[in-house]
UniProtKB/TrEMBL annotation, chains A, B:
<dbReference type="Pfam" id="PF13847">
    <property type="entry name" value="Methyltransf_31"/>
</dbReference>
<dbReference type="InterPro" id="IPR025714">
    <property type="entry name" value="Methyltranfer_dom"/>
</dbReference>
<feature type="domain" description="Methyltransferase">
    <location>
        <begin position="38"/>
        <end position="126"/>
    </location>
</feature>
<protein>
    <recommendedName>
        <fullName>Methyltransferase domain-containing protein</fullName>
    </recommendedName>
</protein>
<dbReference type="InterPro" id="IPR029063">
    <property type="entry name" value="SAM-dependent_MTases_sf"/>
</dbReference>
């Protein structure tokens, strides 16, 4: 058992919910950033806390993770955010973690925020944002409030691995659907936008951050996200929601339908059928 | 030299303009339909006449091709539609071809149309249409005016061949851009919609046509269309047109930009760089 495997296994032994591949994926990304033990970390968009747990392990007993998410605590199924976060708090890592239900600006303006964090981290929370504009204002708010900025998000680059193509088209489909609304449409979909590395680089630069390093991390073989997003787009509920859209033009509706079909046909290739793979993750670090 | 090669070579020897791969591609598709020599064919959306020439060869000296296209005769570069069509008329096949600048309904309603054609053919002219609705009304008009309906169009299914992925995303990008307008946006882009085989089957069925056969034809190795469409989407002119769009929301503009970037990054994969391939063609025949 490698160091990684034993680390992931001991986290799983806490009785928490994320799968082994979810933890391994976050560990693969976080390890490239060489977080300094004892650090104070602000995690933005923590969701159910999969990354929070791995962070709590990596910063050691003298570190602390402040994890924020604006979603209601009763959001999520089969386990809600509140339930998952409570569970994490009850593990041996719990004392290193504080959860807040808040958006970034309100949190930074509140009395509970530290004046300065060692790291501000976005782990797969960028595509939840409605637009680059929103991201840029967040990065501006973080300037002076964190020493380092760390961002990890999927990238629409299958890098020659055709098994990730259905995930890519499913992301395009969700982003198209949600781009119809002025704001984020209540988080029903995981993917609100398909903000690219180039857009993230530009937004960070304009907010005063200096890029230190960027790299690509391939998804571990059985990371579920690709299959989840494909399943979502091919579900009856997704099609029903699309058809209930009265505001869009006929042409736009046909375009959306063609994207759903493209997910479906490309899931069947290459033949014989292979498992859908999750897209690679792009990660960048700034100071 | 195979029969096909000698056929293509003799067409090229007419001094006309389409490349060898354009002719070969159309021959590959048309040969699967076993057109009866001596047939009267109505070709809808003939453009510069690449398919018209191959059809004129296939129907033999007693056959005839009526080729219509609504585009102005001065459309197209470096050679206009009018110039290309005149050139074709001057070849030994010219007497078998009649060109008309017209849309389908006006043509069928005019005195020059035959009451009944053996075949009505759409060769890569479906994605020029603004919507399935337009296609369906055309197919309805053709009912009773042609014995057979033949359609060939690209399909958003790369069938495991990653080299066709940039063409696929470029098609999605153009269709997204053009779906913003109520009607076809003056044909500046080759791709106005990404009407799928499923949509074509449904439209034909609802117009009273009975599907006889459907199949996929892979593009010949050096067919240029994939590279052309990728080049278009990555051109400065395309980006300028997109940025000049004042009607679209910020989110939609970002979505469109992300698609352009996805074309660019996926063109670089698989590494080492390979030539962009053209998407496969789906072809169906109805009675």
């Amino acid at each position: 058992m490698s160091l990684d495997e034993s680390r992931v296994q001991s986290l799983l032994n806490c009785g928490i919910l994320p799968s082994k591949s979810q933890l391994q994926h976050r560990l693969d990304i976080l390890q490239k950033w060489d977080l300094i033990p004892g650090s104070k970390v602000l995690e933005i968009g923590c969701g159910q806390g999969d990354c929070t747990l791995v962070l709590a392990d990596l910063v050691g007993e003298h570190g602390h993770i402040t994890a924020i998410d604006p979603a209601p605590l009763d959001y999520g199924a089969p386990v809600t955010l509140g339930e998952a976060q409570s569970k994490l708090k009850s593990t041996p890592y719990g004392y290193r973690i504080t959860f807040h239900q808040s958006n970034l600006q309100d949190f930074l303006d509140s009395g509970v925020s530290e004046p300065l964090y060692d790291y501000a981290i976005f782990m797969h929370s960028i595509w939840y944002l409605p637009s680059v504009e929103t991201l840029q204002s967040m990065l501006l708010s973080l300037r002076g409030r964190a020493k380092h900025l760390l961002i990890a998000e999927y990238v629409l680059d299958i890098r020659g691995d055709i098994a990730a193509l259905p995930h890519m088209i499913a992301a395009i489909s969700q982003a198209e659907f949600n781009s119809r609304y002025e704001h984020s449409s209540g988080r029903e979909d995981n993917i609100q936008s398909i903000i690219s590395p180039k857009m993230m680089r530009t937004a960070a630069l304009q907010a005063g951050w200096e890029l230190q390093r960027e790299e690509i991390t391939e998804a571990v073989e059985d990371l579920e996200d690709g299959r989840w997003e494909v399943g979502r787009v091919l579900s009856k509920r997704y099609l029903d929601r699309l058809e209930a859209e009265s505001g869009a033009s006929k042409r736009r509706q046909e375009f959306a339908n063609a994207l759903i079909e493209a997910v479906e046909v490309n899931r069947r290739a290459p033949r014989p059928q292979v498992k859908v793979k999750t897209l690679p993750t792009w990660q960048g670090s700034w100071m």
